[in-house]
Amino acid sequence: MAGIAEVAALAGVSKATASRALTGSGYVSEETRARVARAAASLEYVPSTSAVSLATGRTQNIGVVMPYLNRWFFAEVLEGIQQALLEQGLDLTLYDAKPGTVGRRRIFDDFLARKRFDGLIAVGLEPGDRELERLLAIGRPVVSVVGWAGDASVVTIDDDDAARRATEHLITLGHERIAFIGGDSTTHWAQVDRRRLDGYHAAMAAAGLSGLTSHIRSPVTLPGGYAAAVDALGDARTRPTGIVAVCDEVAIGAMIAARRLGVQVPGDLSVVGIDDHEFAEMFSLTTLRQTPRDQGAAAVELLLAHLDDPERAPTKELMRAQLVVRSSTAPTDAVRGATVGATRPQSATRKG
Fold it and tell me: How many Å separate Cα 274 from the centre of its chain?
């Protein structure tokens, strides 16, 4: 493999000039820069990370901290981050910070403090144990995907808007007894849960249905949604005709519970989720689709902007979820009847 000396010799310049031309760390004429670039390309020269770091003062490495690696959302965000960094020729160091573990404490107490990265992307971290302040105190740009904003930039979907539109979808179909499942304030996703719950309440209030709201707390998991729905659907006299779930996993759990209780979806119960989880299509779940890969890529773009401009103010980038209607929602009997009545042709009147 060719080194910088071979590139410099082919281009007819010194090693120092070749290094400046390839790293952009000092002045080189455009003609010389182009000549060195052609020489490097012809020799298939790949600059070493250490050489670039010495020239630019950067590690060419981005740190990523997330609490889970095996859950759909986090895996998708990571894919988006990795692809965007590869396109920029940057390395990635991944920190698996599972909540409540010794490993998480070590990451915050030791590994992150070594600053072996130019910037940090934190995915789904809530501000527990003053973690936000500790990340910002490292002295590197920080971009969050979901979670807090504060003094760090953040990329996230508009959770209030997503839950509001999910609720409005059911209201439009004629549902009034609509329950919200999720929003357990003890979960790691407390802020997301709370914003989605706020969107649900806002839609119900706007429709004059505040007196019919029902918030059923549930862990943000498929089993959690199942258990919560079993309890909510068990009494035919009080059960809702519509459910807005805090996420698709909870929604799918609720659909499984309904099936086992003999409650037909969507005949007796309409269910809407938020996410467009990889299982949503399988269960034909109506949902508000977010694209975690796009959020990961957007976080990289925003972080690079902060690296290019250290004085750049923190920004909040909101992405709007897309309503995807499948067969887990349907009009109520009243709406179906009204529609049929409005479209039924009138009988001809015979005149004598």
Answer: 11
